Amino acid sequence: MEEQIINELPEKYEVVDIQFRPGQKVYFFDPAGLRLQLGDHVIIDTARGPEYGYCTGGNHTVSRKDIVAPLRPVLRKATQQDEHIAAENQAKEKKAYEVCMKKITEQELDMQLVGAECAFDGSRILFFFTADERVDFRELVKELASVFHTRIELRQIGVRDKAKMVGGLGICGRPFCCASFLDDFQPVSIKMAKTQNLSLNPTKISGTCGRLMCCLKY
Fold this sequence. Notes:
Strand content: 25-35%
Number of strands: 8
Structural class: alpha+beta
Oligomer: single chain
Mean pLDDT: 86
């Protein structure tokens, strides 16, 4: 029965490409009857509620195997009010970052704050950080919650994720691949450098993040 249901699904789906933030991973969304184009600002349905996003590719079709169910819909093109809320959230994120940095210093926590993201509906603020070891940030969460009166989440990320979020220039003089066009990090090995007869000097084949350069893959 399950196999029969799968076979009845369409082979092609109409989708649009959406990023939550510039430089982040691109996701497929159901345009839900809307005609969207590159550069449109939209409100999309997510597992955590409505979010603000950017259209990086207008209506097009993809095969069934490229879809990760469930395919969530675009709720609407961003209105003037939506744009106002998004601008307020950006200002809130800047303040949240500054406050969190101050609290981390006061509590002498061994962690590096990378960024802050505010949910579109203001229901939570998510902080990203890196750390060499496990960090007890329970007291930090309490203090941040008392300041912003909303749900606080802290998420530890890797050094490659940090480079993708912060951005910068590689030794080639171009913007980081991860921050400009790579959606996902692909495994990179020293064997790839050997195959290309490159120097095995770590300083020459490592990116700013300290890991092997993504471009060794291609």
